[in-house]
Amino acid sequence: MIDLYAAGTSNGMRARIALEECGLAYQLHPIDIQKGEQKSPGFLAMNPMGQIPVLVDSEGPGGKPLTLSQSTAILVYCAEKSGRFLPRDPAARAATLQALMSASTDITPMLGALFAVIRSKHPHGPTAGVGRLSRPAQVLCGRRADDRGPVALRGLRARERRGTGDLRRPAEPGALGEGVGRATGHSAGHQVLSAEQGLS
């Protein structure tokens, strides 16, 4: 049985989604990071860094217990344990891992910083964050990240042009183009969340 210690953060949800998508049975143990539960002695015994998520698999490799932290490591572990999502072909597997690491180390921190600025009480605009996300989006989507590019960036740009910088406010009708929530062209069929879908 797998035990997952997590909160409702992007990293915690990433681990939980991996378990769900891989069809692995698990027990969720919610950790209240606002109360500092990740700094308790019991939690620190599992992860001395005091960070969520932590996965504990009582039936790990060789039937031995395994404790694992870092959401990206958990994603890879779940894929390997279930035999899903990681290609067997060495070249395809390396390309998949490259895309995963890029999303984890290049894009996720930029999105976190961008959303922190947007949600702050200080009058910062999202312009710098949008610029930093443009190149990774171009590479990942295999196309230019202009107004016909990825939906998430088009949503940010629509707000930038309006001058609001408010991601919680819906974009004007048609500002995101056809197929809101989906990439078009080369990336058709791959789900792309718009800015509205990512925030409540």
Overall description:
With 200 residues, the protein is of the alpha+beta class. It has helices at 10-22, 41-46, 71-82, 90-119, 127-141, 151-162, 195-198, and strands at 2-6, 26-30, 54-57, 66-69. The chain has a 4-stranded mixed beta sheet with strand order 2-1-3-4, covered by helices on one side. It is flat and about 45 Å long. Mean pLDDT is 73; it is low at 143-200.
Measured distance between first and last alpha carbons? 33 Å
Give the oligomeric state.
single chain
Helix content: 40-55%
SS field, number of helical segments: 7
Output the structural class.
alpha+beta
Compact summary:
The chain has 7 helices and 4 strands, in the order βαβαββααααα. The protein is α+β, with helices and mostly antiparallel strands.
Task: Map the helices and strands.
Elements: E1 2-6, H1 10-22, E2 26-30, H2 41-46, E3 54-57, E4 66-69, H3 71-82, H4 90-119, H5 127-141, H6 151-162, H7 195-198
Parallel strand pairs: 1-2
Antiparallel strand pairs: 1-3, 3-4
Helix pairs in contact: 1-3, 4-5, 5-6
Spell out the key features of this protein.
200 residues; alpha+beta; Glutaredoxin; 2 domains; 4-stranded mixed β-sheet; 4 strands; disordered C terminus
